[in-house]
Amino acid sequence: MAAPAASLLICALALALATPAEAAQKKHHQKKHHQEKDADEAAPGEKVVDEGETTKPIAPRPYKYWCQKGECTKFCGVSGIDKAAVAAAAARTKTNLTKDMVDAAVAIQPELEKLGCKPAGGKEAGKASRNCGIEFNKGKGHRFILPGLARGLAKAALGAQKEGVVISVGSTVRSLEQQVELMCKNHRKGMDPPCSGNTGLACPGPNVHTDGFAVDLHLESTAGKSLTQGTGNRQDCKARKKQVLANPHLKKLNDIMFAAGWWKYCEEVWHFEYTQNPYNHFRKREY
Question: How far is the C-alpha of 172 from the C-alpha of 223, rounded, in Å?
Fold first, then answer.
């Protein structure tokens, strides 16, 4: 007799021999155990997808920005940012910056080898894996990710390689200082409010980029020509869907990322996230 069947038979005999009160109590405990197990398994954003490898869990917390729109200028100095104000806000909200993050350009290389592609290497780490379908077009300070994302990026890279294109990764983790600096830069350009939905930039505080499971990227040809948009302003999801369906390169990018296990933020054609569950209804696996 198979082990699961034997276990079921033993449980059935135990219930049959128990008194009605004991049987009811046992059923109650079994039901409670399954409910707790189901709740644990369904916890949104619990950990990065990694197919069994060790990764840093992502706490399913609600994001709360430090400020809203015009009031965010209090973090801006004359020519830079008010680092003391940023540090105080980070401490108050217990926001982790880049702790436990890894350099994506380095971490992806062994993952690519596991999947059958050996990076060509070279002096510039960001270009070392271009022959495997991916590059990182910014310096190390913009390349940090949670360890579990390396596998997801490697899968996407090989998908791009098969299609004869290259994924060019721009922004990954943005530290809170980097996020504030971008906002203040926009403010100095005259954008008001500096972090409204029209600018495509989140207000300072915890978000999917500072937590390390989001990337901004675009497709390039093997010759280095940009094929899709890599940054810009947010647009309505319906408008973005029409844009994707009308652009074969964007459609190809979506297909590659979805097949590798990523979710997209439907208001930005360049933004993708690698989690077990989408953060909210704006995260989709459809055009």
Answer: 23
The helix or strand, by DSSP H or E, that contains position 17, with its residue range, turns out to be: helix 3-17
- On the 0-12 / 13-18 / 19+ scale of CB atoms within 10 A, 51 is exposed
| Residue 201 exposure: Cα atoms within 13 Å on the Cβ side | 23
pLDDT at residue 183, rounded to an integer: 84
Chain centroid offset of residue 233 CA: 19
- The rounded average pLDDT for each run of 10 residues, N- to C-terminus, in the chain (287 residues) is 46 46 46 34 36 41 71 84 86 66 93 97 92 91 85 97 97 83 83 66 78 90 96 90 98 97 94 83 91
The whole-angstrom separation of Cα 34 and Cα 36 is 5
* Residues with Cβ within 8 Å of residue 42, at least 6 apart in sequence: none
DSSP per residue over 23-82, as a string?
HHHHHHHHHHHHHHHHHHHT-TT-B---TTS---B--------S--GGGGGGGB-SSSB-
Category of 69 on φ-ψ map: left (φ > 0), alpha (ψ -120 to 50) or beta: left
Tokens 């909210």 appear where?
280
Domains of the chain, earliest start first: 95-174+209-284 (3.30.1380.10)
The rounded distance, in Å, linking the Cα atoms of 215 and 168 is 10
